[in-house]
Amino acid sequence: MKKITRNTIKSFIKNNEVYFRKAYQFDGMTDGIEYCHDQSISKAESPEEITKYNLGIKGAYFVGSSRDYFNYYEDDNYWGYEVYNCCSTFYLLTPKEVA
Known about the structure:
The chain is mainly β. It has one domain. Helices cover about 10% and strands about 35% of the residues. Strand 5 and strand 6 form a beta hairpin. The protein is globular. The relative contact order is 0.27. The mean pLDDT is about 90.
């Protein structure tokens, strides 16, 4: 499998119907990332302002540089990518084709 890069993620967002699931997010009270109790999968929304830090996905946060890490993800219903960094862990997913 080819190395997953930021460009891979950009292409995935551009070419697929993207769904979003946040697993962990930054909490200033503990100065670290905390487990999200609501891990439901929902259609990705566009934020008010699209920046290089959200790539057009509301709730996503990319640190940039080499501090974002990417893994391929697949379950029974979705496939996509896990993105994690010092601020959050989230999944960018698309539904599998039903045969």
